[in-house]
Structures are given as structure tokens and as C-alpha cells.
TrEMBL record:
PROSITE patterns: HTH_MERR_1, HTH_MERR_2. This is MerR family transcriptional regulator. PANTHER family: MERR FAMILY REGULATORY PROTEIN, REDOX-CYCLING DRUG-SENSING TRANSCRIPTIONAL ACTIVATOR SOXR. SUPFAM superfamilies: Putative DNA-binding domain. GO terms for molecular function: DNA binding; DNA-binding transcription factor activity. It comes from Streptomyces marianii. Keywords: DNA-binding. Residues 1-63 are annotated as: Disordered. Residues 69-139 form the HTH merR-type domain. It holds the Pfam family MerR_1. The keyword Cell membrane does not apply. Residues 41-57 have a biased composition (Low complexity). It comes from the Bacteria.
Length: 341
């Protein structure tokens, strides 16, 4: 029978609860015996033939490391992150440890992972979604920089839109109308338009409208071309609870050719002839088009028509005369208009 001292350690391959005694914290290279423990197969304990004792397992928070492999505690210090953040990044697949002990679950990292850890933390500081971070960190440097530029452009555009919403709500709640809209009029000649009409709520509009206008513009190109800016008519309010309907419209130069195309393809598009008339309108930037503040522009045009003794003669509309995707939040892209008589 071995000595009582030898019986304290578990047999090889069996883990034990680590003691609270900590190893050296000064970052020096671990001892030869401890390094043998770190490089053994997962879960295997090292034993001493001289004493019969089993080496103590190293806990994952201990600052033991060599030139390449670090415990989570040492790695957290090096990356200036908390172990809690590293465990989260591991769980989300953003930063996977180089080695995980199957018996204890302890995580080990390599020194070359420090830059990735810091990059993930910095991207989180600008509120980049985790799934987008997972995409960016896998890209080569120049591509990652372009992806970051695209993300920040989206953030700035969203902030511009949100700022316009806040301004609209502030004015509405305080009873003030600080936004000044310049109202103009234009005469419209009779024209033929290809249209698609649908009932939908406001959160469906950003998806349906570009797709519908794209279909109509492709159809127009096959029967003479596009004869004017595309627009959408609202036969009733499209909001969180009101479903319109909305009507996407693309002017075409040849009504007969358009009708022949409709009869042949039967896509659901309809040909409509819009009579000549007069429009009262105001011009908006891309940020001002967002719901609900765009409603204040419709209200301003309608009030202007009433003050000038004009009658609204048809559904209100938004006319898109600029490239929406290429425009910034401050570029003018849309006319909000009413037919008047």
C-alpha cells in the first residue's frame, strides 16, 4: 500500500477539483513539469514516477502561459477583456478557443488570437450586430474595411431618419410646426401608366414598392420605354393598422403597345390612362420620406391647397425622381403631391 501522501491524488486520467492556490502571476514561462501537464492529451493528468503523486490540474482563470498558449485568465488580461466576454464570444462563434479540455471545460487561447479578440470588442462598441461581426472578422483586411464603411453608412442613414422622426414627434406633441415646406404646382399632360395595386401595411411597403416598380419598369422597357418618374398612389392611408391600398405606377409612351404586352404576359399589371391635370407638391429629402414624419408633408400640401381655394381631385402620391439607392439621407429624392383643381 502506498503512503497516505501518494493516495491523495486521483489516478491518471481522472480530474479533481482544483485547489485555490494560484500559480505565478508574473507571466514567466511555466515549469517543465507544469508544461508537460499543459501539453498532455485532453483530460489526462501527469504523474511523478519519483513520488507517485499526481500533478494538480490548472484552472482556466490562472495566468499560466507560455509563448503561444494562454489560459482564459491570461488571455483576457492580454486582450483587455473579461473572461465573461470571452465565454460569450465563444458561445456565439466569434472567437473560438484554440483548445478546450474535454474533462474540465477549461478554455485555452493562442497569442495570435489577441488581435481578433480586440477587433470583436471594438466592433461591439459601435453596436455592430453579432451576426455581422462574425462576417466581418472573417474577411481580409481591405474587404473588412469596406464592410465597416458600408455598415457605418447605414448607421448614419438610420440616425438621420430617426432624427427626422424625433423632430416630427416633438413638433406634433408640442403643437408646433417648425418644418417649413415649400409648396409648388405643376401641370401634367394625359399619360398612360402601367400599374400594380395591393393592400398592405406600412412595414410591408419598403419591400413591396421597389419590387413592384422594378417589375413595371422592366415591362415598360419591353413596350416602348419609361416615359417619366415612377410613383405610388395611396387610395387610403397605409400605416400600422390601415392597409391602403397602394398603387405602383410607371408611365409609358405607347398605351397600345403596353396593352399588347399585358395581354401577352398576364403578369397582373394593369394599364391605366391618367387624365391631364395639375399637381400641388413639395420636395423631400431621403430622410424626410420615412414614416411617420412624411405625413406632415402630406398635411402641409393639403393645407396649402385649402388656403389657396383648391380642391383635392384624386389620391395623394409620392413621385420618385432620383436614384434611391445612390442618394444620401440629405439628398432630395421624392415629391409628395396631390392632384388639385
Amino acid at each position: 500500500m502506498g503512503s497516505p501522501r501518494a493516495r491523495r491524488g486521483p489516478p491518471p486520467g481522472v480530474g479533481r477539483r482544483p485547489s485555490q492556490r494560484r500559480l505565478a502571476r508574473d507571466g514567466r514561462r511555466p515549469s517543465r513539469r507544469l508544461w508537460r501537464l499543459l501539453t498532455l492529451p485532453q483530460g489526462q493528468a501527469a504523474s511523478s514516477s519519483a513520488t507517485g503523486r499526481t500533478s494538480r490540474p490548472v484552472t482556466e482563470d490562472e495566468p499560466v502561459h507560455n509563448d503561444s498558449l494562454l489560459t482564459i485568465g491570461a488571455f483576457a488580461t492580454r486582450a483587455r477583456l473579461s473572461p465573461k466576454a470571452l465565454r460569450l464570444y465563444d458561445r456565439l462563434g466569434l472567437l473560438t478557443p484554440a483548445y478546450v479540455d474535454a474533462a474540465t471545460g477549461y478554455r485555452w487561447y493562442r497569442t495570435e488570437q489577441v488581435d481578433r479578440a480586440r477587433l470583436v470588442a471594438l466592433l461591439r462598441q459601435i453596436d455592430m450586430p453579432l451576426e455581422r461581426i462574425a462576417y466581418v472578422v472573417e474577411l481580409p483586411g481591405p474587404q473588412a474595411a469596406r464592410a465597416l464603411t458600408m455598415y457605418w453608412a447605414e448607421v448614419e442613414e438610420r440616425r438621420a431618419v430617426q432624427g427626422a422622426v424625433v423632430a416630427h414627434l416633438r413638433d406634433r406633441l408640442s403643437g408646433r410646426r417648425q418644418t417649413v415646406y415649400e409648396i409648388r404646382t405643376m401641370d401634367m399632360a394625359e399619360r398612360a401608366v402601367l400599374t400594380e395595386r395591393r393592400r398592405l401595411l406600412v412595414d410591408e411597403l419598403p419591400h413591396w414598392l421597389p419590387a413592384a416598380l422594378g417589375r413595371l419598369e422592366r415591362a415598360a422597357e419591353e413596350c416602348g420605354g419609361v416615359a417619366g418618374p415612377p410613383y405610388v398612389r395611396y387610395h387610403a392611408e397605409v400605416g400600422p393598422d390601415s392597409d391602403g391600398p397602394a398603387e405602383a405606377c410607371v408611365p409609358v409612351p405607347d398605351a397600345r403597345a403596353a396593352q399588347l404586352w399585358i395581354d401577352e404576359h398576364r403578369t397582373g399589371a394593369v394599364l391605366r390612362v391618367e387624365p391631364a391635370g395639375r399637381l400641388a407638391y413639395t420636395r423631400l429629402t431621403k430622410a424626410q420620406v420615412a414614416y411617420p414624419q412624411i405625413g406632415s408633408a402630406f398635411d402641409a400640401v393639403e393645407r396649402w391647397a385649402t388656403r389657396h381655394g383648391l380642391t383635392v381631385a384624386g389620391p395623394c402620391r409620392e413621385v420618385y425622381f432620383a436614384d434611391w439607392d445612390a442618394a444620401t439621407a440629405t439628398d432630395e429624392v421624392c415629391d409628395v403631391a396631390f392632384p388639385v383643381a
